[in-house]
Amino acid sequence: MHVTDEDGVRTVTFDRPEVMNAFTPEIAEELAEVFAEADPDAHDAIVLTGEGAAFSAGGDVQSMAEREETPEEAYERVTETFGRVVEEALSARVPIVAKVNGDAVGAGLAIAAVSDFAYAAESASFSCAFVRVGLIPDTGGSFLLPQLVGLRTAKRLAFTGEFFGATEAAEMGLVNEAVPEGELDERVADLLDTLRARPTRTIGLAKRAIHENAGRGWREALDYENVVQSQAYATPEHEEGVAAFLEGRDPEFD
User: Fold this and answer.
1) Same domain for 93 and 139?
2) What is the rounded distance in angstroms from the CA atom of residue 107 to the CA atom of residue 59?
3) Which of 111, 140, 179, 235 counts the highest number of beta carbons within 10 A?
4) pLDDT of 65 higher than 90
5) How far is residue 197's CA from residue 216's CA, in Å, rounded to a whole number?
6) What confidence score (pLDDT) does residue 57 get?
7) Residue 26 sits in the same domain as residue 152
8) 20 and 114 share a domain?
9) What is the b/e burial string over 214-238, where b = at least 16 CB atoms within 10 angstroms of the residue's CB?
């Protein structure tokens, strides 16, 4: 993968087109670092996309065939690679946008699911393909998919590994929208313009509250919401937003 920075947007491009941008553990480690380093003072968003015809075909099956390890060793590897990708993505302080330019399979589908926004070319295909190689959904798939698409649909995708199109992915809530391939860049660019105009630090706090509260009971969730909101009240972004509203102008967030 390669990483570029332009106009406050950090773009990560998976660049193994000869294997449909399949992930290795090393790539997962690099991606986790990108998420961990995200800085709201420098970045408005992170965009993920693929080189060539695919977004990502998921885990590198050739690497799987060559791997010899005990279950304990597998646990440590998965935790430190794809598990860490999910942890860092969910806690990243800036929004993550998946620009799904082509097929998203297995961990590729899961990366789109863990992103805060996902827009897909209408020509893209999806599959929760882990079962096809005798695995369960990982990279957060076992808990993210039910949240996004519902329990029965998540089971169907996980148990069958069936392929489906971008339009169905949008209808089930896996992606925000399926757009004509020639309009994908423009649609994501419009979203990035909106995000640039919003206070990134505040978005990070909202993201943190949403993810932290996903598994809590309502009393604990409400208390945590109040804790995070009290932090938002103390930010320059809140001060500027209130001042702009009272002065009848658009806010100017850093």
Assistant:
1) yes
2) 6
3) 111
4) no
5) 31
6) 96
7) yes
8) yes
9) eeeeeeebeeebeebeeebeeeebb
Lookup: tokens for 156: 């169907």
Count other Cβ atoms within 10 Å, centred on residue 64. 11
Which amino acid, residue 173?
Answer: G
Cα 203 to Cα 206, 208, 252, distances in angstroms: 5, 9, 15
**Mean pLDDT taken over the chain:** 94
CA distance 200 to 65: 42
> Could you give the percent of the chain with pLDDT greater than 70?
100
Domain that holds residue 123: 2-196
Q: Which of 163, 169, 166 is nearest to 180 (CA)?
A: 166
Assess whether pLDDT exceeds 90 at residue 149: yes
Q: What is the pLDDT of residue 63?
A: 84
Q: Which residue has the tokens 């206070």?
A: 199
In angstroms, the CA 57 to CA 120 distance is 15
Q: What is the CA radius of gyration of the chain?
A: 19
SS3 118: strand
**What CATH number is attached to the domain comprising 239?**
1.10.12
Residue 141 tokens read as 């798939």
Q: Which residue has the tokens 């519902």?
A: 150
Cβ atoms of 33 and 68 within 8 Å: the answer is no
pLDDT of residue 183: 98
Within 10 angstroms of residue 24's Cβ, the number of other Cβ atoms is 15
Q: Is residue 228 part of a domain?
A: yes
Residue reference for tokens 């660049």: 15
The Cα 198–Cα 81 span in angstroms is 31
Look up tokens 């590729």; give the residue. 108
